[in-house]
Amino acid sequence: MCWNCTSADIDQPVFEFWMSKTLLIPDRPWSIMRPLLQALLLACALLPGLALAKRIYQYRDASGVLHFTDKRPEDPSLKVKETKVQADPTQWLEMLVTESGAERVVTMISRVGGSMMVTLSFKDQENMQSDPPLPAVIALGAYENRQVARIQQADPYKPGHFGIHYAAVPGRPVAIQRSDFRYHYPFADRSQTILGQGFNGSFSHTDVQSRYAVDLGVAEGTPVLAARGGRVMLVEEDFEGAGLDRKRYGERANSVRIEHEDGTMAVYAHLEFESVVVSGGQRVNAGQMLGRAGNTGFSTGPHLHFAVQINDGQDLRAIPFEFEDGLPPLAAGAPRPAN
Length: 339
Description:
Residues 44-90 form the DUF4124 domain. By secondary structure, the protein is mainly β.
């Protein structure tokens, strides 16, 4: 696709510019890449069954002022009108290419409340040069907006064209978890939870992102607590519905991702619709409520999917971890570790 094509006379040969994106798209709902893919393919029609949902609450306060909000008011005496609407996917990362004289300036805009690594590269370029040379690996901070490359024709009197690809992975690839670190249990009452699937679970914990994840069965609506302090990177809370149709539900789990001081990240997934009580960029402490357990996405019932991940430079990778008092016993009939 040519997003911006210009032509001129022989003293300024044809210059073609087009832009595309290459995304590392994990196949699990607790990854950043699901919203990235959807947000960057805005020109494509989304299937109605895969749209995000949102509830708008309308009410009048004691002074008669009419309010519209996406959070239900806490005052039970208020008469509230609830309307369900379609919500747009969050665009976690945006790339802009703008003209500056003979150059094209590439700017990356992060809407993530934590670190992100972006690999920027040419595709099918001819007679083009970049400062810095591409491919380049770029580290973006929380909510950073930065010019990352300047591109121009190597020989201004010869035709040139290029495409831009980028791949993004949350986190910074220097994370080293302390070997003696133990995580707080993410629920206040361990006795009310069961272990539905553990490390290497044969049902769905078989890939690099989930190999060391645990699924903790619990009653829907149970408060989910931060297992470790850190900064909220990503929040998804606008999905409804669950099932085993991977195409329909595989990337539709509500979740919170938290970056820890050592660069590791914790993922809390399958949260209840619109139950998250923290925001991107917010600092949280261990034991602080994040949201409520739910049954959203690729799921057979209410539970919390919890994993600790690192950015290994190319992908998200789950790593082993331990809770302070261990895990509850594996439930009868639960998936056993894959061989």
